[in-house]
Amino acid sequence: MTAQPTIIPIDTPTLGDRSYLAHDGQVAVVVDPQRDIDRVLGVARREGVRVAHVFETHIHNDYVTGGLALAAATGAAYHVNGEDQVSFERTPIRDGDVVEASDLLRVRAIATPGHTYTHLSYALEFAGEQVAVFTGGSLLFGATGRPDLLGHDHTHDLVHHQFASAHRLAHELPEQAQVLPTHGFGSFCSAGSTGDATASTIGQEKLVNPALTKDEEAWVAETLAGLDSYPAYYAHMGPANSTGPDAADLTAPEVADKETLAKRIAIGEWVVDLRTRTAFAAGHVTGTLNFGLDGQFATYLGWLIPWGTPLTLLGDSPEQVAEAQRELVRIGIDRLEGIATGTPADWTYEELGSFRRAEFADLAQVRHHR
């Protein structure tokens, strides 16, 4: 059996994304790292490897990258498509370029436009064998990345590019090569359902992926008809990633007392309760908003908040607030006005608000009587 590299996924389930660290036992490459790079550095330390190369498949539209910061922290080369308009130093890479990461590891860039015009996939070779391909927002598990994030004027061209890119990957790579997308795990960057698949190969995608089983016009029509809304904060991600974001600052904000919270609510700032919706229903500070940390917290808060609105977080514990802060820096919400932890009684002098809860049995009764 052919020897294989170690490929470690680093999941961000609340955004529906996945990064990867691949290594040969000594040298590692990282693809599409999230902004909280401490997770990647922790994996590298655990594996005892040196991160030598960081690759971006594209200028991301759904999160702020940690690529530049990771490269700075490790001394790695930072590979970004040479055609991308960016304002930071990078190692430009283009279709067909090969990076010799080590004697065993080689990475080859493959132009796969569709999600963006300059999207690249990266074929991973190990000991001369093509063992995997990092597909970013191109070929996903049973789907592809959506082609409409650059605006309506570009969608028609990009959707046809996406179809051609899927076929290029299927043609150039062996059937046993692993398909390793960075979107499509609940991400709004996916066009079509990726189901609950957690792994796939080129051969498997040839059997099940509509982009590879349907003719182009049928697939294009189906894909365009299935496109729905995507989070409003996406508009801010491309510009942020093009300017080269710093590493996330996860320093705990200062604690807000009851008077401060009351003032912030009164002037229309966002004070967000992180507890579950059932806990919020039972009792909450009137005027606060509930975005439970038990769901796609950052996605929906980022979707609805007017960008730049001052934000304060309320949570059960410092750990809960710290988790929310980590989620928010991934989408570029860096500044928190403050935090408070404990129970709603600790956050206000006023009587708590509440609302009734119903279960399905209650709904059946309402339907029966109406």
Q: Which helices and strands, and how do they pair?
A:
Elements: E1 6-12, E2 17-23, E3 27-31, H1 38-47, E4 50-55, H2 67-74, E5 77-81, E6 91-93, E7 98-100, E8 105-111, E9 120-126, E10 129-136, E11 144-145, H3 152-172, E12 178-181, E13 190-191, H4 202-208, H5 210-213, H6 216-225, H7 234-242, H8 258-266, E14 270-273, H9 277-282, E15 289-290, H10 297-304, E16 311-315, H11 318-329, E17 338-341, H12 360-369
Parallel strand pairs: 3-4, 4-5, 5-6, 10-12, 14-15, 14-16, 16-17
Antiparallel strand pairs: 1-2, 2-3, 7-8, 8-9, 9-10, 11-13
Walk me through the structure:
- The protein is of the alpha/beta class and 370 residues long.
- It folds into two domains: 6-242, Ribonuclease Z/Hydroxyacylglutathione hydrolase-like (Metallo-beta-lactamase, Chain A), CATH 3.60.15; 258-346, Rhodanese-like domain (Oxidized Rhodanese, domain 1), CATH 3.40.250.10.
- Helices cover 31% and strands 22% of the residues.
- It contains twelve helices and 17 strands.
- It has helices spanning 38-47, 67-74, 152-172, 202-208, 210-213, 216-225, 234-242, 258-266, 277-282, 297-304, 318-329, 360-369; strands at 6-12, 17-23, 27-31, 50-55, 77-81, 91-93, 98-100, 105-111, 120-126, 129-136, 144-145, 178-181, 190-191, 270-273, 289-290, 311-315, 338-341.
- Strand 8 (105-111) and strand 9 form a beta hairpin.
